[in-house]
Amino acid sequence: MSAAGQSPGPGHRPLAGRDLSCKPGWTEQPSLLLLVTALSFLSRFYRLAEPGHVCWDETHFGKMGSYYINQTFFFDVHPPLGKMLIGLAGYLTGYDGTFPFKKPGDKYEQHNYYGMRALCATLGSCLVPFAYLIVLELSGSLTAALLAAVLLLFDTGCITISQYILLDPILMFFILGAVLSMLKFDAVKDRPFSLTWWKWLMMTGVNLSGALGVKFVGIFVILLVGINTACDLWQLLGTLNISLVEFGKHLLARVLCLIVLPLVFYTALFGIHFLILNKSGPGDGFFSSAFQSRLIGNNLHNASMPEYIAYGSVITVKNVRTAGGYLHSHWHLYPEGVGTRQQQVTAYLHKDNNNLWIVRKPDQTVDTGDTTQYIRHGNVFRLEHKETSRNMHSHQHEAPLTKKHFQVTGYGINGTGDSNDFWRIEVVGGQNGDLIKVLRSKVRLIHVATGCVLCSSGKTLPKWGWEQVEVSCSPYLKETPNSLWNIEDHVNAKLQNISLEVLKPSFLEILFESHVVMIRGNSGLKPKDNELTSKPWHWPVNYQGLRFSGTNETEYRVYLLGNPENNTSFFNVAT
Q1: How confident is the model at residue 299, as a pLDDT?
Q2: Does residue 171 register a pLDDT over 90?
Q3: Which residues contact 312 (CB under 8 A, 6 or more apart)?
Q4: What is the sign, positive or negative, of the torsion defined by CA atoms of 448, 450, 455, 461?
Q5: 507-523 and 261-276 are packed helices; what angle lies between their axes, rounded to 10 degrees?
Q6: Which own/partner pairs from 26-35 qualify as long-range (CB within 8 Å, at least 24 positions apart)?
Q7: Where does residue 111 fall: left (phi above 0), alpha (psi -120 to 50 degrees), or beta otherwise?
Q8: Strand partners, 359
Q9: pTM of the model
Q10: Alpha carbon distance 139, 133 (integer Å)
Q11: For residue range 296-328, what is the model confidence (pLDDT) as tens digits?
């Protein structure tokens, strides 16, 4: 027989799609799929309402669900989809968003929390049939599919995280949904552009955006699908009976369903997020002054204040670096061995009365007379902390965390101090005589005695600094966002107010800013002192468990344990 007439070998795999005719697909065994699905739901919903108190990270994600119900703006390092679904489930099942979720162990009492747990349990229950179908698609073996389903069905970790108000079951639902949709699409590649082909391609895109919309780690399943798609297109390009026009259609379909559709869906999530959370809340301070001006109840929303600052003005000073914080001080002193033992000056991400400063002339402790004197580019002044009456001060002692930077402190009594309290203000791109505009002027504060520039370093202070952000004075005069500030709040009874309505940003501007804040928030996450942590080698061997709730012998306690059979399976695979 000629080479052209030879029959395909046993390892032949058609480029247009896999031959699934001999594979026992799930449609041939619906009873098994229904069985593992039913067992999964039973195991996840068993005693779901217990314990009737806050467990582990329910204190975070339950609270965020409440924020959506109350339309209160908050900040989180993850995209909004998971929390939005939790809030929606609570709203639809009668939860009114009034439970505070202060700490693990707080009793729910009359509050209806079951719906939020039921959402997570429902999505967590889907993981078992998803695993069954994925392994069936990959291996064609019913035995392997059942083994995968059973391992996941009895996995205590999977059961535990599916029974509480957490993001993990929601994230895993979209990740496994994306993998399953990708495999289903691969199985019908021999029927390009059919309705089923389009369905699974679009479902893959929707699940990808869902995974990324819950947590940024969803990007790894995007990489998996991307690699698979690239290999698929490479095979199509090498197929001789497919024209370039036909290949272009395949490429365009994948771009539309795996790039454009997920981007549209992901962007729409944030549109809904911003539309719902339109009231001022605990997340305001992480964002720029312009962002805050769109939040109802924020002091900048539809606000009016004097346009230019003057001596005697009470102001807040905000670092223009995203999540840079407000210039802040409090009665606490730097500890022994950290510079001089003077009052701490930090950057604080939340609005607080300790963020208020009074602009004083260098040689006066109070303003005298009725004449208003505006602050201009190049002027020298003192900043007196309103709550403690100490001046912002710097000297050549080393900053707490940033090497070669100088310490910034609060110094003096009732506004009196020394020459190290004097600061010169400069407008970026300004000239001598330019006025300092509220919100719009980006300024630098130069310490007169040392020539250093005031900075928010972005580094988190230890517990003695209340885990606020370090403020230092940098001898390096390079212009960076860390060294740039703007005046946000401004009160001066002698000056006329103007409306700040024109400062509201566009949707694309707040979308970009929210991602910068989330990325920086993620990069700043570090274990706290004495916090229980794990190492990667701990994970497959279940080196230690995790307490979900319970602090004494009398409470209902939940403790996450590993599965010996899963450890055995891991070592069998490894060997």
Answers
A1: 81
A2: yes
A3: 358, 359, 360, 367, 372, 492, 494
A4: negative
A5: 90
A6: 26/132, 26/133, 26/136, 29/142, 32/132, 32/142, 32/146, 33/129, 33/132, 33/133
A7: beta
A8: 383
A9: 0.78
A10: 10
A11: 998 888 888 998 999 999 999 999 886 678 999
